[in-house]
Amino acid sequence: MKFPGARLLARVVLALVAVAAVIVTLVGCSSAKDDSKSSGSAKVGDCIVKGASADAKTETVDCSSDKAVYKIAQSSDKKVDCATDYTAYQANLAGGTAFLCLAPNFKQGSCYNESSAAGVKNVDCGSTEATFKVVKRIDGEADELLCGADADSFRLISEAPKTTFCLAKPKA
User: For a tag on the chain, would you pick the N or C end, based on fewer CB atoms within 10 A?
Assistant: First the structure.
């Protein structure tokens, strides 16, 4: 049974979630600095490859690279609470340790493996490791209603720059 106002209700709920995320971000960001000196050689807007272990070095990479799974949304020399859309990460960089809030930088048509221990990494779509595929990436909008029937889930980045990732199970 379809509820005629379901799409409107979904939009209202998402708007409330977005407002809550903005409030959390504003409260969390008040003590954070976007200071490239505090984060070694990585700065907000750079893409990185997370180190495989806690003591591994984090490297910056070109954002168009398949390795560039994360983009730095916030950087601080002190631990901060990241918005719910982001992944908190303590990075060991050339200039020292930095506390980063990372936004996904998934590529349309690419597949990824996500695990609670290692986070997200790019994998071959034919691999048994692949847990999801990005069937559509929409920059500038955070709205799951833009995903088509070929997507079975989504991931939204409601902070600037807004991004919608439409996801599906990879086909083996």
Answer: N
